[in-house]
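Exercise 4. Each item below gives a protein and its sequence. For each, produce the structure-token representation.

Item: Reverse transcriptase (Leptosia nina).
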Amino acid sequence: MHRTPSGATLLLSLQWGERNRLMFSLAKTQSITLKGKLQRPPVVRLGGESVRSVTSAKLLGVVLDDRGTFAEHAGDIGDRAGRCFGKMSRGTYIATITYAAAVWFDRALSYVVASRLLRSQRAALVLLTKAYRTTSTPALAILGRVLHANLEVYRAGKVQATRGDRAKAELARF
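Answer:
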């Protein structure tokens, strides 16, 4: 019937949708290859139609890319956080950039992700400190008395991961 495990899984999903009176929209459906470097992405069919293959997809607010770097996620949240920095308090900015940090905090120290986060933080820090645009980003963080965005994400991710580990340990006791 279906030659691939993905085809069988998609068939099960379609059948579940029919039982629950749901229809999957092909226009909103995407496929992403998360493991391996293939020459071409595999052809995935949903109800006989080809599903569009993408290099990154947003899942529950986290942008997943095909290389697992989270660089696109860092850029996306940086843009979002930068827009809200001028309108609202610093708390909103921090909450936005640290969303789901437990999933990707270890990547926040890589050059690509750190530079994207710092780039988003820079404009907000220039406004906050009223410094010249030529002021270096590290100096802006010191003048603004804030932690660099990538270090803030790393710190928040460590805290979230520790809380998750503690919760798992408590549940294991029961």
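Check: The chain has two domains: 5-54, 62-172.
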